[in-house]
């Protein structure tokens, strides 16, 4: 029996609100779907890649262009989920926000514009009825 170890550890040293997320060890093999500032699908594409890129498109749409997910990478878990299918675990994502304050890798509006320029809708975007992307300047 495989046991998954996930827990929140709340440490309050001198600073209040420090929280750590501990996860099980990941496989050393993974697929990189997007980079920090490059959002072009890899040449191998496929359904998984299309789904991850459509997820990034959905996040952009859902936040009205205020946030994009970047540096998306993960691996297919060989463990069986509740519905009997393998699942993809994305880890170590970055975000670009209009305010540019979500972390050290947040490239702000330049990061969002890069996503808008790089993203090409695919079959999954079409199935989700996601329309073409526009950057914030064009929306105003």
Automatic annotation (TrEMBL):
Top-rank lineage group of the source organism: Eukaryota
Signal peptide feature range: none
Entry keyword annotation includes Nucleotide-binding: yes
Keywords of this entry: ATP-binding, Kinase, Nucleotide-binding, Serine/threonine-protein kinase, Transferase
PANTHER family referenced in this protein's UniProt entry, alphabetically: ALPHA-TYPE PROTEIN KINASE DOMAIN-CONTAINING PROTEIN, EUKARYOTIC ELONGATION FACTOR 2 KINASE-RELATED
Protein name stated in the entry: Kinase-like protein
Source organism: Gymnopus androsaceus JB14
Domain (Alpha-type protein kinase): residue spans on this chain: 1-133
Keyword Transport set for record: no
Pfam family, one: Alpha_kinase
Family matches, as InterPro entries: a-kinase_dom (IPR004166), Alpha-type_PK (IPR051852), Kinase-like_dom_sf (IPR011009)
Molecular function terms from GO: ATP binding; protein serine/threonine kinase activity
